[in-house]
Every structure is written in structure tokens, then in C-alpha cells.
Amino acid sequence: MVTSPRRAFAGTGRNPIPSTPDSLPDWLQVPYSGQYQAEHPPIISRELWDSVHAILETNGRVRDNTKRAKVLYLLKGVVFGNDGRALSPWHTTKKNGRRYRYYVPQRDAKEHAGASGLPRLPAAELESAVLDQLRALLRAPNLLGDMLPQAIKLDPTLDEAKITVAMTRLDAIWDQLFPAEQTRIVKLLVEKVIVSPNDLEVRLRANGIERLVLELRPEPVEQVEEAMA
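C-alpha cells predicted for Recombinase zinc beta ribbon domain-containing protein:
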């Protein structure tokens, strides 16, 4: 489908161009000339038309924020520069459709590039460095021996053997987890990530491992049956 021939503001003609999904909101905002009752059956119902316009009238910034929220950032809200200011998620999409994600120092965004002393950090590299530290922690042989007794104090119903198996498998299946699930686990464990020009510090939550252990406990049979009902 292509658009009809158009005339530019300067009066020169323009050839038809292919339509895209981005064109649809423009079409739906253009009223047709005149309304003629009962000339032909409607293509869509009045209820659907009104619903579409209710969506289109939603504040544009809210819609844009919703789109941006679909770009997941593993460390959003927990990564800071050594000056104490947060690093903000930012991404750009090239013409070929490839998306590049970054964490940008807020000081640079508000003042000038380089003001923080930190570069614009590729998100994948920073997230990978943090995950390497977390996964090394989960593989530590004495981790469960230290943390399980504390977790059992919080919930005496915990099955030590099942939790041990779950924690052991977590590192092995990490790459198969959905990004949202990875983010949830990171937020359970990490209180703050501090980036300096020559160092990366990962600060864990005081009870992060215990909280993760509680998350990994199997659901009681009656809860599973209720969820499946």
C-alpha cells in the first residue's frame, strides 16, 4: 500500500511513498469529507473508532515512555558513578535496525561529555562484568553452608536439599532465563554498582542471598493446583 501523491508546502509535487505502521495514527486523525448515513455498511464499528481515538488522545509522552520501558536494562536504578550520581539507561537505533544500549553518567547529560570522568558505558559489557561477579558468588562452595541456616531461620519449612539443587542449577541455566527474570534476580542480590574509571564495585544486599533462597523454594502442591485451576 502506498500513499496518494502529495504536494509539498513549497508547491512541488511528491511521489507516492510506501505506507508503514507509523502512518496509521496519521490516517486515523484525518476526518473524511462529509457523513452520509446508510450509504454503505461501516468498515469498523463506532465503538472501535471511539476506542482507537481514546488511545490516540493518550499523552504522547506516556506512550513513548511505555515503548522505552520495553528496552530492558539489567542495572537500571542500581548503577552509579564514583561521584554518587546515577548512570541513566540510554539507547540508539541505527538505520539497519540494530539497537545499541548504554549507561550514561547523569553529570555528563546535564553538564558536558566527560564531566564525570567516565565514558558512555556499553550496557552489554557493564552488565556482563556484574553478572560475572554474581555468578562467581553463586558458584562459591561455602555459599550455601553459610546462608542456608539463616534462610531456614526466616522460613523453617525450607527443604535444604531442594534449595541446594536449585541454587546449583541457577548458574547453569542463567543464560536460558528471560531477561525480566534475570533482572529480578539481580535486584534481589545487588544493592548498588559503583563504576569508577579503573574499577567496578558490586555491593550486595545484606540479606540478598537469603531472599534469593526464599524465591527458589518450590511452591506447595496446593498453591500449584490453585494456579493451574
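Residues 6-11, 58-69, 220-229 have pLDDT under 50 and may be disordered.
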